[in-house]
Write a structure and sequence with these properties.
Elements lengths: L6 H15 L7 H5 L3 H9 L6 E9 L9 E7 L7 E2 L5 E4 L3 E7 L2 E2 L1 H15 L8 E3 L2 E3 L8 E6 L1 E2 L2 H10 L5 E4 L3 E5 L5 E3 L5 H16 L7 H8 L14
Parallel strand pairs: 1-4, 5-9, 6-10, 9-11
Antiparallel strand pairs: 1-2, 2-5, 3-4, 7-8, 11-12, 12-13
């Protein structure tokens, strides 16, 4: 780093880098409007820590249920078994592995917010297991299931007043990032906060990192329940073994 650069300069450069990664520096607005889930996936991969994986695809559970097709899934990279990849780069991800899901649309409006919530709910309704695990040689009980972040990713947006009202109606949406207009975020208290256009991407950048940090690590998957779907002649049983 140039010794004359400040940390503020570095963070400003990151904002510009995020804008470039979504094509917001493109001169023609129709080019921006054509940006889809692949651009957002690349954008998220550009700043998320390596512990997180990002893909489009489907989420399934140990009861054999499966979600709608999801544009963007953020899931655990290190503790996520049974992830299948199709030739068109879609993945099948276990419900326990998921931190967040997003729908991608050109504009944040009521129709797209309602549609995004339908997609998010198709994941949230899935069954998630939680199993005891071993930490430092000791058995730790199953952790409480975490909130699954759900949102809408767009380039443009309707007015702040209208989007605020729509998020009050469709209260399962946690955040909306309209990259050229604003980031909207619902606090755990229910309060809705909105950034200005200039800070739309950095606000989403910091908010998402902060929310993922608060979630910690996803619950340990109980692979025994998935095994029951696949195995006919063999059964997994028992709890974790701890050395005395």
């Amino acid at each position: 780093m140039n010794k004359n650069m400040t940390i503020s300069d570095v963070l400003s450069y990151k904002t510009e880098e995020l804008q470039r990664s979504l094509g917001l520096d493109l001169p023609h607005p129709t080019s921006q409007g054509d940006l889809g889930e692949d651009a957002w996936i690349s954008f998220l991969k550009s700043f998320l820590p390596s512990r997180y994986a990002v893909s489009k695809g489907f989420v399934f559970d140990s009861h054999g249920e499966i979600s709608d097709q999801i544009d963007v899934i953020i899931y655990d990279r290190h503790h996520s078994p049974l992830i299948l990849k199709t030739p068109n780069a879609e993945r099948y991800v276990t419900a326990e592995s998921v931190y967040a899901v997003f729908e991608v649309k050109p504009e944040a409006n009521e129709e797209n917010i309602r549609y995004a919530l339908k997609k998010i709910d198709s994941v949230r309704c899935l069954h998630r297991t939680s199993r005891e695990m071993i930490a430092s040689g000791r058995s730790v009980g199953p952790r409480k299931l975490t909130h699954l972040i759900g949102g809408l990713l767009t380039i443009d947006s309707i007015s702040e007043k209208n989007i605020r009202e729509h998020l009050k109606t469709y209260d399962g949406i946690d955040t909306v990032c309209a990259a050229s207009a604003m980031t909207v975020f619902r606090r755990s208290s229910g309060k809705i906060e909105i950034s200005d256009a200039q800070e739309a991407l950095p606000a989403f950048f910091y908010l998402l990192l902060d929310e993922l940090h608060k979630l910690g690590t996803v619950a340990a998957i109980d692979i025994r329940e998935y095994a029951e779907l696949a195995l006919q002649s063999f059964r997994l049983e028992g709890d974790c073994h701890v050395d005395e």
